[in-house]
Amino acid sequence: MLDMEMADQIEGDIDPADRALIAHETAAAIVGQARESGDPELVGRLVRLVDEEGIDTVAMLWSRADAHTLPGALWRIYMIREWVKHDAEMVARSYHHGVQAAHVRHAIAGVEDPPGPDEVRSLADSVLSGVFSGDLAVALERAGAFCRVVATGAAFEAQSDEGHADARAHRTTMRAAQLLRTGEDLEKCAAMWREDRLD
Description:
This protein is mainly alpha-helical and 199 residues long. Helices cover 79% and strands 0% of the residues. The protein has eleven helices and no strands.
């Protein structure tokens, strides 16, 4: 048993209210400053934020933020970029499989045809650049549409694996469900930004 004096010396986690405040203030400051400055070099540095600072730094700032907030949207877009960067071939394959069934979403996402690894990497950087220098709602919609197309392709892949590669089918189905949810969250954030409700 710890006595009270020892217990008082143990550092606790940051207060959830303080964590939320930090997340919202840093997201608003970063997006606001980049959009105000219009500096392409600053935008480039922000796109490469995870490359230079590490995913842990970004996670510490925004990973616990609600999905329908500016920090929550930033976290999801940075994670999409990281995922695409590290698994571009698999992402491109799923995207390619999803294009025909989600043709409208493909048009919104704006991935070049044919959608290969370089094209999906380029889209991830383009979307993140749009967050800081373009129409934020459009950038969020593009990211959401991209997630939905990949989710559709992953669902087709899972279906074709059923009966002979069930473990892989299960993993792919779970990934498709998560991507669909992320796409919906980002599209909702886009609508909230247009209504001046995304903070």
